[in-house]
Amino acid sequence: MFLRKKKKTCAADGEGWTYSEMVKDHFFSPRNILFDETDYDADGMGTVGSPECGDVMVVWIKVDKDARRIKECKWRTFGCASAIASASMMSVMATENGGMDFNTAQRLKPEQIVERLGGLPDIKYHCSVLGHEALREAVLDYLEHESK
Amino acid sequence: MSPSNKKRNFKLVEKKSEAENITSLFFTLTDGADFQFFAGQYVNVELPWISGHAKSYTISSVPSESALRITIARKGNFSSALTDMPVGSKLVFDGPHGYFFPEQTADDLVFIAGGIGVTPFVGIINDRLNSGFQNKITLLYSTKGIAQTAFFGELNRLAEEKKIDKLVYFFTEDKSKHKFVEEYERISEKTLKKYLVSVGRKRYYVCGSIGFVRDVWKILKEYGVPEENIFTESFF
Amino acid sequence: MDKRQIYLDNASTTPIDPAVLTAMLPYLKEGYGNPSSLYGLGRSSKYAIEQSRQKIAEIIGADREEIVFTGSGTEADNLALFGLARAHKEKGRHIIVSTIEHKAILEPCKRLEKEGFEVTYLAVDKKGLVSLEELRASLRPDTILVSIMYANNEIGTIEPIKKIAQLLKKDGSIYPIFHSDACQAANTQSIDVKELGVDALTLSSSKIYGPKGIGFLYLNKKYAIEPMIVGGGQERGLRSGTENVALIAGMAKALEITEKKKKLEGPRLLQLRDYFLARIKKEIKSVSINGDTKVRLPNNINISIKGVEGEALVLLLDEQGVCCSTGSACSSMDLTPSYVLTSIGVPLELAHCSVRFTLGRHTTKKDTDKTMKILIKAVETLRKISSIKCS
């Protein structure tokens, strides 16, 4: 008798519209939003997406210049629940455990954000791509200014 | 330092069929001399009569070539319209964009491609060789079979000449025997394991559909590859 | 069902009227006979179907044999397009539809194009209206079918069906056959086929407080049609399959109730909708209306709220018990924003911010007031999070 080996997947991987509890948490209670950037002295800023595409993510970071780590990571997003949750989770990942070093931040992958969110439907994968791109842009922005 | 991004005008000068439903389109600039990019980057292509916003396509050529090549799998309206454009058509590209390429590194490089996901690797491999980098290169490439494998001839030649140190095809449907075909099923935990011996100072680049990249990412991590040595690019 | 739920998505589906459920139950319990069977139990099922058919025919001003029961409004649309095109292809291969038809019309058109038919997709203006001039100009000697929806499901635009019929039929010619999808219009607009002048009409039970899984196609008896589902020959060979008597009885009852309530329901919804819309425009800034205010179903609100993405808004409203829908790309399975909104010229960035409220029989003023409170809060929350500032 042939038994199909059950692949360990999480409910939100790939299919339909199921949002994990983690996604819902980060959507209904997003972390690290920067409501007003007027007096925020950011070390780096990254913007990705466009209103035409239905997603615009802006990320501001403050860094520890000596330790070369991210100290603060703030954001705002025009986008769907997955985009908001991805930005929120990304900002948590960037600042936890003393903050990501620049190298790790630049290498942050959408898959890592999706995993921490407990999975995202495939149709929402691009939202996690925005998260990783926006963070990278912010870090690159800092590095570019630093070298000037 | 990343090359500057802006909209540029290109003209389609040649088309070439690479495999079943896969076509390479060759473009030259019509508005200036130079389009700088790193092999493995992509451009955003606009076709306003098909869609309100642009779609991204990886550049499969190297910067030193005279024409810019994008290699497209015919899947939906956009890719079909692009593939069917007559030679001489003019298009606007925005770019280049992306960071899916190894910078200065001596690490061994393992490229894992699903279907049309091979496009960045073709450019990157040729570019490394042209630039004289000495990395050990492994390419694991999953397709349905020979007819669906883009750059089959070119990749085999590079492997014969030892410019690709290890080339392994995973054919999911075709049962043809070939020197570099070692697996007759999809890339999975079972079939990938033997190629993950000594993950050491290696960088893994994975490119393909969202599901393919996610599956390979999970396998690599389970096998102990440090997350920061894995680089991903999903096509969607 | 959650008691605090405020359901404002009646264009998508409607709750079953209790009288409809009562009408259905006997056929889910002791009345289970197959209508094709020779014995008493079967004959009474058959009788129930024919009674329902008669009732529906009377309501829409048709003959009994002009009603074909289908599994949904979508199936009726498919039958109309595929069935009529194929049956009349010797007479011509040109079809005309609008760009804002339901996908149940547009998808068959795409497939018919592959079969050698030519389809003209008439553009609409920013109200969503088809131009009679353009329709006239598109007509050809080989045009066999024109399908224009009575009212659009997203923006509620009501097309000039009578005028279109007059245009198409003025020479008394048989072709083109004029079909209209009336699924959204049936609640508040007249669906008398003689008055409208249509040759074919689609209706869906799930939009008129009837059960899901049943619809019908009205087709003037002078036109032949090819069936799509063949087998035992039910529905005079036009739609085989053991009939679902309960659903048919339910739909007939639903239509009967809808007809009775129509006269008062239209004005009531209009007043309520305009009250709700006036509050939205007054109390939330940077809101634009999609579609026209006048030539519109009285229960339909479709707006774009700048800087507020549609899916995110719908989910925040859902958390507070309000059900509605959006035309944003992120809410669709193919990541494209609503083609209806783009067809009427809504810019992409506003299409992503669209939200649709469609009021229903059970919607009260209290519901709209409660929704306003929730909507204001949700918009405020999302605008604070948003990277797009609205002036």
Description:
The complex is a heterotrimer of chains A (148), B (236) and C (391). Chain A is an alpha+beta fold. Helices cover 39% and strands 18% of the residues of chain A. Chain A has helices spanning 21-28, 81-95, 102-106, 110-116, 125-146, and strands spanning 44-50, 55-64, 69-78. In chain A, α1 (21-28) crosses α2 (81-95), α2 (81-95) crosses α5 (125-146) and α4 packs across α5. The longest helix of chain A is centred in the C-terminal third of the chain and has 22 residues, at 125-146. In chain B, strands 4-3-6-1-2-5 form a six-stranded antiparallel β-sheet, covered by helices on one side. By secondary structure, chain C is α/β, with parallel strands linked by helices. In chain C, α1 packs antiparallel against α8 (245-283). The model of chain C has no long low-confidence stretch (mean pLDDT 96). Chain C has two domains: 6-14 and 262-384, Aspartate Aminotransferase, domain 1 (Alpha-Beta Complex); 18-257, Type I PLP-dependent aspartate aminotransferase-like (Major domain) (Aspartate Aminotransferase, domain 2). Chain C is globular and about 65 Å long. In chain C, β6, α7 (193-196) and β7 (200-204) form a beta-alpha-beta unit. Chain A binds chain B through residues 13-14, 50, 52-53, 103-104, 106-107, 109-112, 114, 122, 125-126, 129, 136, 140, and chain B through 2, 52-53, 99, 210-211, 213-214, 217, 227-228, 230-232, 234, 236.
CATH class of chain A: Alpha Beta
Strand order of the largest sheet of chain C: 2-8-7-6-5-3-4
* Order of helix and strand elements from N to C terminus of chain A: HEEEHHHH
Estimate what percentage of residues of chain A fall within beta strands: 15-25%
* Count of individual domains of chain C: 2
Please compute the radius of gyration of chain C using only Cα atoms: 22 Å
Question: What does the secondary structure layout of this molecule look like, with pairings?
Answer:
The complex is a heterotrimer of chains A (148), B (236) and C (391).
Chain A: H1 21-28, E1 44-50, E2 55-64, E3 69-78, H2 81-95, H3 102-106, H4 110-116, H5 125-146
Antiparallel strand pairs in A: 1-2, 2-3
Chain B: E1 6-19, E2 22-29, E3 42-45, E4 55-58, E5 68-73, H1 77-83, E6 90-97, E7 108-114, H2 119-131, E8 137-143, H3 152-160, E9 166-171, E10 181-183, H4 189-192, E11 202-209, H5 210-222, E12 230-235
Parallel strand pairs in B: 7-8, 7-11, 8-9, 9-10, 11-12
Antiparallel strand pairs in B: 1-2, 1-6, 2-5, 3-4, 3-6
Chain C: E1 6-7, H1 18-24, H2 40-60, E2 67-70, H3 73-87, E3 94-98, H4 103-114, E4 118-122, H5 132-138, E5 143-147, H6 161-169, E6 177-181, H7 193-196, E7 200-204, E8 215-219, H8 245-283, E9 287-289, E10 300-305, H9 310-319, E11 322-323, H10 339-343, H11 348-351, E12 354-358, H12 365-385
Parallel strand pairs in C: 1-11, 3-4, 3-5, 5-6, 6-7
Antiparallel strand pairs in C: 2-8, 7-8, 9-10, 10-12
Helix pairs in contact in C: 1-8, 2-8, 3-4, 8-12, 9-12
